[in-house]
Amino acid sequence: MSAPPGSTPAPPFAQTPQFWVLMVNAVGLGVFGAVAALLFMGLIGLGDNWYTASDPGWFGGQWWWVGVTAAAGVVVGLLRRWTHLPAKIPSLIDDLQHGHVDRRSVPGIVAVSAASLIGGASLGPEQALGSMGGGAAEWVSQRRRLTDEDSKVNTHAGFAGAYGGLFSSTVIVVMLILEVARPGGQRMAKTLAATIVSSSVSFAIYFIVAGSFFLDAYQVPSYTFKDWQLLAGIGLGLFAAVVVTLLATVMKLAAGMFGRLKVPAVVRSVIGGLAFGVVGVILPLTMFTGSDQLKTVLDTGGTLGAGFLAALVVAKILTFAISEASGFVGGPIFPTLFIGGTAGVLVHQIIPGVPLGLAFTCLLAAVPGAMISAPFALVLLAAFMTQLGALETAPVLIAVITAFLAMESVKYVITTRRRTSPSTNRATG
């Protein structure tokens, strides 16, 4: 549509004062995110020193751990009460998709998440970090009286600042936010620029102080790329979809069970702490985020056996679901990385002809990629974590896309059946 005669066309958005306000905000949010991430990761790093698992096998934990996890449940329940944290808080994915963080919930989320992670819950730190970055961005947006569109851009820049150091890569962070948030139109370009600036500043500060966190985290055996591995990627992707379906089912069942408990919130979190503590004694590798524990699985998987690995996958799914349903707070990325990586080692144990590096990396990326609907970001993350070559990355991409499409097709079928079911039609008629 052409501008009316005599009017001056609007300048490109990058030549407006509002755009440069966003860029200045992005720099500040990158600094804040790096400092917040360093402090939070340092805190939970000091807090998990009570966990010492000399035996990763069956019943390798200590029974006194159950007392610690139950006490963590007490602390979590009390913190939720004292900070007035709602029983149901938006997930990390919800916050990214809406481009909004409720600033009133940030102190409670950070405090409860710290207690959860120190107490051994099977959750990740990304929920707390994202809340801090997004909450700071919301405060800046309100102070500067930004428009609704620019406020969402600012919020995404806050997330990028919080994650820039944690994921050790600007590319991964930007791709993750764009895939989950899916901004459209002019906001896409603004978000791209703001998240690149914010995550780059954050990564620079974080790397100088603490070094890289994810880069080259898992040493997988090298293997020679073969054409058949492209087809294997499809099979591994379908297996990942089965794992994600199991995970979603267990999470729904756990949420229903804990939701029906007519007990105070503190009691609910204590029950959850007792549950994942007992599982942790039986299978100690299910404790905490799973980042360090996955290294143990990769290094000793050949001696653990297929039955043990299968039990480990199911147990981690169970502890993750229980942790979320019982009131503990944390993110889904780290636990699903553990579930996917362990499932990949299991595939290699059952089918030795599938190289360990191939199976591990494909499932490492495909399970969380399908779970949070961010396939390309997880391919990049898996490639950086394992230092795969360019050719070896192709089956990983196929596995992730296969898992992603399989899960989206399942969602489509379920949604279609709900819309066309007679009970739904009667309810809406």
Q: Characterize the overall form.
A: globular
Question: Whole-Å distance between the termini?
Answer: 42 Å
What do we call the CATH homologous superfamily of the largest domain? Clc chloride channel
Order of helices and strands: HHHHHHHHHHHHHHHHH
Poorly predicted ranges: none
At the first level of CATH, the class of the largest domain is Mainly Alpha
CATH-derived architecture of the largest domain: Orthogonal Bundle
* Strands, total number: 0
Computed structural class: mainly alpha
Number of domains: 2
Q: Mean pLDDT, nearest integer?
A: 89
Q: Number of helical runs?
A: 17
Q: Summarize the main sheet.
A: none
Describe it:
With 429 residues, this protein is mainly alpha-helical. It has two domains: 16-210, Clc chloride channel (Orthogonal Bundle), CATH 1.10.3080; 228-411, Clc chloride channel. It has 17 helices and no strands. It has helices at residues 17-47, 64-82, 92-98, 106-118, 126-144, 148-163, 170-181, 186-210, 228-260, 265-282, 291-304, 306-325, 333-350, 356-371, 375-386, 390-420, 422-428. Helix 2 runs antiparallel to helix 4 and helix 14 (356-371) packs antiparallel against helix 15. The chain starts with 16 loop residues before the first helix and ends with a helix.
